[in-house]
Amino acid sequence: MQKRVIIATLLAFVFFIGYDHFYLSKLRPQIDTNQTATVEQNQAPSTTSTSKDVTNVAPTVNTQKDILTIKGDTFHATIDDLGRINSFKLDEAIYKNEKGDAINLVDPTFSPMPLEMRFSDASLNQKAFSTPYKASVSSIDLTTGEKSVVLTQDLGDLVVTKTIKFYPKGNYELDIKLSKEAKYFITPGMRPNIAVDGYTVHGALIRQSDESLDIIKDGGVEKGGQSFSNANIAAVFDRYYSTLFYSFDNSLNVVLSEDKNEINQLFVSSNGDFKTNGFIGPKNQKLLASINPQLTDIIEYGWFTFIAKPMFSFLSWLHGFTGNWGWAIVLLTIVIRVVLFPLTYKGMVSMNKMKDLAPKIKELQAKYKGEPQKMQAQMMDLYRKHGANPMGGCLPILLQIPVFFAIYRVLLNAIELQGAPWILWIHDLAIKDPYFILPIIMGASMFLQQRLTPTTFTDPMQEKIMKFLPLIFTFFFITFPAGLTLYWCVNNILSVIQQVIVNKIFKKQKEAVILEKKSS
User: Fold this and answer.
1) 0.70 exceeded by the pTM?
2) Is the pLDDT of residue 17 over 60?
3) Please, are residues 124 and 178 in contact by the beta-carbon 8 Å criterion?
4) Contact between residue 49 and residue 223 where contact means Cβ atoms under 8 Å apart
């Protein structure tokens, strides 16, 4: 039972990592790079709950021109004459692409763009996409503080006024006023199309007023669409970046649909005047908390979020202490091993005892081959006599799984690691080790740990599976971010050290028992 549970646990690790790495990457539909932000992409959203209020229209969009430029502390952006944020580029060096260019969080091949409005009335919608907005100013500089701009669109019998106050950190306040009521939808935009990978889900996150979260991956929207009437955060995201609306005073009526490529389209509906807050930028914990602590909920860590959040806070504190994210990961790993050492020690001692009892257990299995009940009773007596627990080796492993998966998610999702160096050849903890040194060390340390760990295998197939696990893990971690591989590598090295110490302690205890028996 013990060895089967241990094998099942290790295979679960392999499955979990493999699922994230290979399967989740297939959830992201391939984007047609020839798409343009015209014609059918400018259809109003349609969902079951709002279909009677929404008309699918496909207005032709002429080439837009910029009417406003925005300069922030860490970004620069533009707004086009349809009142949309059509460019939002991050200026900080850590966010530049491999060519050294500033990345654009608003992909021109994605539609809708942030602040785009779509009316339910087809003729009004057609007119809205052919009538330019006018801006009260042509440029604003946020390096000296927040600034406001007024965008006005005259649709004849309806005048749309967007007053937007931009802040230096990438957040803004939006106030829409209509000269008369009209059903419309406005969006924070499509999710950023920057960090496309197989490590994390891309999609939408809806935070309800009761603080519960709904995460809908791309391709996962229910047929006919979905609606949420009591939301206070409505975000679309990729691994590291997000664009969102948030309102903690008034609920947002969110409509979620998907485009022809099964990529989520998120809108908020209204009949008239509308106020909300918005944000475009990296899912940086410190940045989001400085705007509003509740916004940190968009950094979601999966099943073990309740462990991962405080773990990241501790990792961040260690970074403040060391000044280096790599060394912070090393220290975090050491602290985790120290905290879990009592469990680990009990498991290691139990496995040593089980190894010593293996020959006697084999004798009992042969003696009571046709009498399973008697065999089980004799084995339990043997365990009690020697103070051994057949589940003692695997229970500590099972209890540590939430911690391991939580740190796995933390190190995958932390944009703080992007562009962060460690030592020597590791210049970016968010991407793979360029020379595969860490994965190789990790695999070698795992193999060494296997050699040092007592086992009681009688099934050759089980033994072969265990022998191949270091190779399998090395294969998985070759393309994993260096920060995550560093954690596993240090964790394995510490496990080897612990195993050596425990083996020596157990050996001394056995020698003492033998001497005591001889003397008596």
Assistant:
1) yes
2) no
3) no
4) no
Average pLDDT over residues 312-338: 91
Structure-token match 């509308």, residue found: 274
CA distance 162 to 153: 9
CB 435 within 8 A of CB 481: no
132: Cα separation from own chain's centroid: 39
Structure token digits, residue 110 = 């994605």
Q: Which of 170, 172, 223, 214 is nearest to 192 (CA)?
A: 170
DSSP string, 298-350: GS--GGGHHHHHHHHHHHHHHHHHHS-HHHHHHHHHHHHHHHTHHHHHHHHHH
Cα dihedral across residues 462, 464, 470, 471: positive or negative? negative
Quote the CA–CA distance of 286 and 74 in Å, as a whole number: 14
* Structure letter (DSSP) for residue 52: G
Q: At what angle do helices 482-519 and 437-452 cross, to 10 degrees?
A: 20
What is residue 351's predicted lDDT score, i.e. its pLDDT? 72
**Range name among 120-124, 152-156, 230-234, 511-515 with the lowest pLDDT average:** 511-515
Cα angle vertex 400, ends 396, 401, to 5°?
A: 120
What lies within 8 Å, CB to CB, of 35 at 6+ separation is 41, 109, 110
Q: ∠297-299-305 over CA atoms, to 5°?
A: 80
Residue 407 has which token pair? Answer: 């740190």
Task: Say whether 469 sits in a helix, a strand or coil.
Answer: helix
**Spatial contact of 456 and 355, defined as CB atoms under 8 Å apart:** yes
Contact 205, 259 (CB under 8 A): no
CB 204 within 8 A of CB 216: yes
In angstroms, the CA 134 to CA 83 distance is: 8
Name the strand (E) or helix (H) holding 143: none
pLDDT tens digit sequence for 350-397: 777 777 777 787 788 788 777 788 888 887 887 777 767 666 556 666
**Strands 147-154 and 226-237, sheet pairing:** unpaired
pLDDT, tens only, 182-198: 999 999 999 887 765 55
Q: Which range is least confidently modeled, 67-81, 424-438, 451-465? A: 451-465
Burial call 171-181: b when 16+ CB within 10 Å, e when fewer: bbebebebeee
CA distance 119 to 111: 15
What is the chain's percent helix, strand, coil content, to nearest 5? 45, 20, 35
